[in-house]
Amino acid sequence: MLPASTPSRSVPLAGASNFRDLGGYAGAGGRRVKWRRIFRADHLAALTAEDRAHLAALGIARAVDFRGEHERAVLGYTLPRVEQHVLTIEPTVVQRAQQLLQAGHALTAREAVGLMQDTYRGFVGENAPRFAQLFALLLASDAPLVFHCTAGKDRTGFAAALVLLALGVPRDVVMQDYLLTNTLYRRPEGLAGPAPREVLEVLWRVQEDFLNAALDSVDRHPGGFDGYLAGVLDVHDAERLRLEALYLE
């Protein structure tokens, strides 16, 4: 439990529902992740003027956008005095689901879970360079940074898990943070499409099985999580120590 005096984890915004702070969690050596340094979010294209003022007051200086090219084209944004970094990860699970539905396949919830798990395994492999770039940005400066995708749940969820685990936050706590999306995220109206409701419930929410599919894949890397950080994301012991110095108190 966090003391009542700590900042709110969920940042209340009219134009984004899943914008939250990664601060406050106990990490390496019992030190806590600093508040108001690293944020995760859904897309930022619908922010109101009041929302933008709120983010300015928080000192947000950098925004990392994991969305695909079409997603950015449809829902683009700019934020005054905020550096924007595009780290493209295409939403393959949505594309594959659409292809199956257009081909007349009656997609089931079980198949949707399998698609999501495959997507998360893809984060670990072919999308690893984008997450390596996120760590490079975090290591370059501790200027407040938000990373996001469209819903702030999958690409963003895996990124948040990597960052928190690298800072020594226990895996069960990381999973709790990941699952907060199911409480906070407001799905846009009018996006039902041809998929059955039970399939949409899979695609628009998060499950432990999704993140575990990625983390189990990471664990199978030589050296486990530490080996993956060093060998794939270029976050070696020195970088881990710098991360801790920048983001733990």
Automatic annotation (TrEMBL):
Residue runs in coiled coils: none
Highest taxon of source: Bacteria
Matching Pfam families: Y_phosphatase3 (PF13350)
Designated name of the protein: Tyrosine-protein phosphatase
A GO MF term: phosphoprotein phosphatase activity
